[in-house]
Amino acid sequence: MDKHVFEITDIFRGAFFLCNGGDLAGVRLNGDHAGRGRQEKLVATFLIRGEGLIRLDREYRSGKALVNPLQLRESLNHLRDILFKTLREEERTRYDDRKRKDRGYQREH
User: Fold this and answer.
1) Which of 23, 37, 48, 62 has the maximum number of C-beta atoms within 10 A of its C-beta?
2) Domain count, the chain
3) What domain range includes position 39?
C-alpha cells in the first residue's frame, strides 16, 4: 500500500490531491505571531493523506496532471473554508491571550 502524508503550502496542489482521492488530515499555521505593530506573516501548511500521492505529485509537477475542473473548484473552496476557519480560531486564541495578559488593571489594590 502506497499511503503517504504530504505537507504542502500550495493550495492548488492540495486541491489536486483532494480531487484524486486524498484526504485533508489537518492544517497548521506557522510564522511570526509576535505582532509588534508589523504585518504578521503566517504560512498555512495543508496535511494531505492518501494512496498514490507520490505518483500524483510527479504528474502535477511535470504538467501532465488532469483533473475535473468542477471538482478542482470544489476542492479549492473546501481548502479555503478550512483555512479561513483555522485563521479565525488562531486570531480568537491570540485575542483571548492578549485579553488575559491585560487584566492587570483588574487586580484589587
Assistant:
1) 48
2) 1
3) 3-106
Q: What is the pLDDT along the chain (109 residues), one digit of tens a residue?
A: 557 899 999 999 999 999 999 999 999 998 755 454 455 688 999 999 999 999 999 999 999 999 999 999 999 999 999 999 999 998 888 777 776 666 655 555 5
CA 22 – CA 67 distance, rounded (Å):
13
For the chain, the first-to-last Cα distance in angstroms comes to 66
47: Cβ contacts below 8 Å, ≥ 6 apart: 5, 6, 7, 24, 25, 26, 27, 28
73 contact partners, CB below 8 Å, separation of at least 6: none
* Beta pairing partners, 44: 29
